[in-house]
Specification:
The protein has about 200 residues and is an alpha/beta fold. About 35% of the residues lie in helices and about 15% in strands. The protein has eight helices and six strands, in the order βααβαβαβαββααα.
C-alpha cells in the first residue's frame, strides 16, 4: 500500500512488521507470524482507546502479505483503523533497516509532515503509562523522547522512541538514505547502535 501523505498536523504511532531469517523470532521462537499476530488485534483496539487523535501506521514487507492474518489487516486498513505502508523488501535488505521503517514517517514528508512520530514494538500492548509519558514529553517541547521501562533498556531504543520530525532531522543533519547508509544494519541491535551514535 502507498497511501497519500498524512493530514497536516497529524501525530503517528508507527510499527514495522516483517519476516527475516536473521530475526531472533524466526531462529529461537519458531513462527514469528504467530509471535506478532497475537498482539495485532489488541494493539489496534488499545490504540483507538489510548491514542485518540493519533494515526496508527504499520510498515510491512511482502512476506507479511502471505500470512493468514493479512486479510484482517487489509480489512482494518479499509475501515480506517490503521494505515498499511508497503515498504517492499529484497533478499539484501538488512533486518535492522526494516526495524528502522518505524522512523520513516519522520523523513517521508517534508510538507504536511506529522508533528510527532512515536515508534513502538509489535509485541507490546499500548498502556496508559506509555501515553502519559508521551504527553509529558510533548509538553516539554524536546525534540526526542525515549522510554526506559526495564533494566536492560538504555540509550536510544527503536521501540520506545518518539521524535518531532523536523527538529529530529535537524539534529541528525542527514536524510533517511544517508542515515541507513551510515552503518551496516545486518547484526541484531545495529539499528540501535546507529541511533545512539548519530
Amino acid at each position: 500500500m502507498t497511501p497519500a501523505q498524512p493530514p497536516p498536523g497529524s501525530k503517528v504511532v508507527s510499527y514495522a512488521y516483517f519476516r527475516s531469517a536473521a530475526s531472533v523470532y524466526e531462529k529461537e521462537k519458531g513462527d514469528s507470524a504467530l509471535q506478532f499476530q497475537q498482539f495485532l488485534g489488541l494493539i489496534v483496539r488499545a490504540h483507538h482507546v489510548l491514542w485518540k487523535g493519533w494515526e496508527l501506521y504499520l510498515h510491512h514487507d511482502r512476506h507479511v502479505m502471505s500470512l493468514p492474518y493479512w486479510p484482517a489487516l487489509l480489512r482494518m486498513h479499509s475501515e480506517g483503523l490503521l494505515t498499511l505502508w508497503y515498504e517492499g523488501v529484497s533478499a539484501v535488505t538488512p533486518i535492522c533497516e526494516m526495524m528502522l521503517w518505524r522512523l520513516l514517517p519522520a523523513f517521508r514528508w517534508l510538507q504536511a509532515e506529522p508533528v510527532a512520530v512515536v515508534c513502538r514494538d509489535l509485541d507490546v500492548i499500548p498502556s496508559p503509562k506509555d501515553r502519559a509519558a508521551v504527553d509529558e514529553w510533548l509538553a516539554s517541547g524536546k525534540a526526542v523522547h525515549v522510554i526506559h521501562d526495564a533494566g536492560p533498556h538504555g540509550g536510544v531504543m527503536g521501540g520506545t522512541l518518539g521524535v518531532l520530525p523536523q527538529r529530529f532531522r535537524q539534529l541528525l543533519g542527514m536524510s533517511w538514505d544517508a542515515l541507513i547508509a551510515k552503518a551496516p544494519l545486518r547484526e541484531p541491535g545495529s539499528e540501535q547502535n546507529l541511533l545512539n551514535s548519530s
